[in-house]
Amino acid sequence: MDVVKSPIAIRSSSLLEDSHYQPFAGIYNTYMIPYLDDKYEMLRMLSDAIKGVYASVYFRDSKAYMQATSNVIDQEKMAVVLQEAVGNQYGDRYYPSMSGVARSLNYYPIGEEQVEEGVVNLALGLGKYIVDGGLTLRFSPYHPTKVLQTSEMEIALKETQTSFYALDLKNIGQNLSEKDGFNLLKLHIKDAEKDGSLRYLVSTYDPHDMIIRDGLYPGGRKLITFANILQHDVFPLAPILQMVLKYSW
């Protein structure tokens, strides 16, 4: 707490989660706490969150999943990881410009995509939106300019992200909930537009000309397409992901 001056994510790192033979990620709770000047209050929140992560092993959903995958609690071993939360503060909320989940194998390749090239799901805001099954942008890091969801205007209007999660910096967790999202805010894309966080992330739909323009323009609906990053290389995300997936086997 003396080193990190930003919110902290408290998450599990267990034997079953690291298994190569079965999916177990996201089963246990992950908590996020805001940075506070009051170190004792922040320590209290951190302590409660660590207890909450360990306790989540015994939650009904965790035990049901463990039983369904033919595992037993006695075989599980867990450590708790503290991670600095990447993002920016906008008033009383905190979130990153983008978060994502990358998979080394793409089991459902489209067009020129190959299984071994992997696949990525990208979203604005905290990664909980992706883990919870939110509407994300799916693409191959080897074919970043070919995104099915943005290939046609009608698809882009229906199949792009409309909401996102942010950490509520005002909620200091006086009563830690068994629900790890108790201090997260679910916001609309318009809220991010007011924060000024959409500059390189969106395309703008012009209803008068019936066209989608890459970039942030006045008026019109903002679509989370990451076009400036994937199409125009404002940030080398695709090459970075290629390297990560190549060496993460």
Overall description:
23% of the residues lie in helices and 24% in strands. It has 249 residues and is α+β, with helices and mostly antiparallel strands. It folds into 2 domains: 1-85, no CATH class; 96-249, no CATH class. The strands form 4 sheets. A 4-stranded antiparallel β-sheet has the order 4-5-9-10. A hairpin with a 4-residue loop joins β11 (202-206) and β12 (211-214). The chain is globular, with a radius of gyration of 20 Å. The two termini are 33 Å apart. The model has no long low-confidence stretch (mean pLDDT 91). Residues 6-151 form the Pyruvate phosphate dikinase AMP/ATP-binding domain. It comes from termite gut metagenome. This is Pyruvate phosphate dikinase AMP/ATP-binding domain-containing protein.
Put simply, the count of helices is: 7
Helix content: 10-25%
Distance between the termini: 33 Å
| Class derived from helix and strand content | alpha+beta
Give the overall shape, derived from the CA principal axes: globular
Task: Please indicate the percent range of residues in DSSP E strands (runs of 2 or more).
Answer: 15-25%
H and E order: EEHHEEEEEHEHEEHEEEHH
How many beta-strand elements?
Answer: 13
What strand order characterises the main sheet? 4-5-9-10
Whole-number total of structural domains: 2
Mean pLDDT: 91
Summarize the main sheet: 4 strands, antiparallel
Radius of gyration: 20 Å
What ranges have pLDDT less than 50 throughout 5 or more consecutive residues? none
